[in-house]
Design goal:
Structural class: alpha+beta
Strand content: 25-35%
Radius of gyration: 21 Å
Strand order of the largest sheet: 7-4-3-11-10
Number of helices: 5
Number of strands: 11
Shape: elongated
Helix content: 10-25%
Length: 265
């Protein structure tokens, strides 16, 4: 068995890792793919990851990344397929599956980056996944810390018009992200004053409003308690109630904007 963490085969020889400059469709050792996916898998994520794998976006063509199945007649001196060519047959790609994980909320962009290391190795663009109608582009990650509730908001499309965010119930009024802002994230705090007569109120959700030239988005990402999980805070690992990703708030169907594909030689 290969050692996934060390990126080496059972004989301790290292396999070739992806190179960021070689793009999404570079040849990748199957053990590297396994290493990334094993790193994303635990008892809490296995179910959502399997659901993403069996979803229609991973089982029904055409696939959003535009990859086409390839064939070849032989191998070059380095054991790579050569020459090879496209069959014009749409096929799922590793990036399609990573899209499915982010767009379904199975994993955050930051978690994906931890395994793909896009700055040096596999350059999957986690901040701009190819999502379909009914999936993201805006999602909220909830965390409780004492009487404070944190909402980490991620938006996966450039903002054509301002994005307005406000807790329900509202404490201090809305937060406005200006038009023209690219895909990004923001952490908002719901911190009511202490209530000596009882428990402090919790938010029921986060209201999200924005629009574009031919679409509008208005909805609430609900506050959903989940089991506790260890997280790092102030340099120490503590057990905070990790509430998890709420369902994404979708916009109407829009064509996916994908990077240009590398030519096949």
């Amino acid at each position: 068995m290969p050692s996934a963490c060390a990126a080496t085969y059972s004989n301790s020889v290292s396999w070739r890792r992806p190179i960021a400059n070689d793009g999404l469709e570079q040849i990748i050792d199957e053990n590297e793919v396994a290493r990334m996916l094993i790193g994303l898998t635990n008892e809490n994520t296995l179910g959502p990851m399997m659901a993403a794998l069996s979803s229609s976006r991973m089982t029904q063509a055409p696939y959003l990344r535009g990859y086409e199945r390839r064939t070849w007649d032989g191998l070059d001196d380095n054991g790579n397929p050569f020459p090879y060519w496209s069959t014009d047959d749409s096929a799922p790609h590793l990036a399609d599956y990573l899209d499915a994980l982010v767009c379904s909320g199975a994993h955050s962009a930051a978690t994906i980056d931890t395994e793909t290391e896009p700055w040096a190795h596999y350059p999957y663009p986690s901040q701009s996944p190819a999502c379909r109608s009914g999936e993201l582009p805006i999602q909220v990650d909830w965390t409780e810390a004492g009487i404070e509730t944190l909402a980490e908001v991620r938006w996966y499309i450039p903002l054509e018009r301002e994005l307005v965010l406000d807790f329900e119930p509202s404490l201090t009024g809305p937060t406005v992200i200006p038009a023209g802002t690219g895909p990004g994230q923001l952490v908002l705090s719901f911190a009511p004053p202490p209530n000596p007569l009882g428990a402090s109120p919790r938010p029921t959700g986060l209201r999200v409003q924005t629009s574009g030239e031919d679409w509008g988005l208005s909805g609430t990402s609900p506050f959903r308690p989940r089991p506790s999980a260890p997280v790092t805070r102030d340099g120490k690992v503590v057990n905070l109630p990790r509430l998890g990703w709420a369902p994404g708030i979708a916009v109407p169907p829009r064509p996916a904007k994908l990077p240009p594909r590398r030519p096949i030689h």
